[in-house]
Specification:
Layout (H helix, E strand, L loop, with lengths): L1 E5 L13 H6 L3 E4 L17 H13 L5 E6 L2 H11 L4 E7 L20 E2 L17 H10 L3 E2 H5 L14 E5 L4 H10 L5 H5 L3 E5 L6 H4 L1 H15 L1
Parallel strand pairs: 1-2, 1-3, 3-4, 4-7, 7-8
Antiparallel strand pairs: 5-6
Helix pairs in contact: 2-3
């Protein structure tokens, strides 16, 4: 199976390095993505928006022959949902890592502080305590050292979707910072935060209790959960 790994904000393809071995050893073909504007700290970010990130992943998917599993962490969840909207016939499953699908008109996070054309990684006190669980001082230092500013447009641009066939693409939601039971409660109560997720016909929830960056705090466990989802899809 071809597995496309889309990182969240401030991260490039290398953020999946500790997750990859389990998936490659199982015989899958991995395609970790470095999205436009995330090539380096010095890379230009002006004019790069959410649509550019979606287009980059669509182009990658178009070059793959077989069915594709998309994996999106955090803000990458919005990207993979838009890719499933653009190429529903090619996507076998979408796996949301502490993330979920972003509906029409929504933005990933337009409240993040920006500096010019970019959104730097905020101070740790800008995150919820649940997000930082298991992210010890060493991991925090490593994360901050590797962090690349996110293009401002990616955080602030509205999502645009066109094909209702996206709701037929099976989804796996890996809940980390907060339990999946909370997401299911929100779905049952009609909470707008999960309105798009509620429209997907086939959704499985898997709990992986840790902070918002399981690829750093629990990479082997995350890899095993992704592998299980891929195996069920195959």
């Amino acid at each position: 199976m071809d597995i496309v790994l889309v990182p969240g904000f401030w991260l490039d393809a290398s953020s999946w390095d500790a997750v990859a071995p389990t998936l490659t050893e199982a015989g899958h073909r991995l395609h970790p993505v470095t999205l436009p504007g995330l090539e380096s700290v010095e890379a230009p970010r002006a004019g790069i928006g959410l649509a550019d990130h979606v287009a980059a992943v669509v182009q990658l998917v178009d070059g793959l022959e077989g069915p594709v599993v998309l994996v999106g962490h955090s803000g990458g969840g919005a990207v993979i949902h838009a890719v499933a909207d653009a190429r529903p016939e090619k996507i076998a499953r979408s796996v949301y890592v502490d993330s979920g699908p972003l509906g029409e008109g929504g933005s990933i996070n337009d409240e993040l502080p920006s500096e010019g054309d970019e959104v730097p990684l905020p101070p740790w006190d800008g995150f919820e305590e649940a997000d930082l669980r298991d992210l010890d001082e060493e991991l925090r230092d490593q994360f901050r050292a590797r962090a690349i500013p996110e293009p401002r447009g990616v955080a602030q641009d509205p999502q645009h979707l066109h094909d209702v066939r996206r709701y037929a693409v099976p989804a796996t939601v890996i809940a980390c910072a907060y339990p999946s039971s909370l997401l299911q409660e929100w779905i049952d109560s009609g909470h707008p935060y999960v309105a798009e997720l509620a429209r997907i016909r086939d959704v499985e929830f898997v709990d992986l209790p840790t902070g918002h960056w399981p690829q750093f705090t629990k990479p082997k466990e995350l890899a095993a959960v992704i592998l299980s989802a891929v195996d069920r899809t195959a």
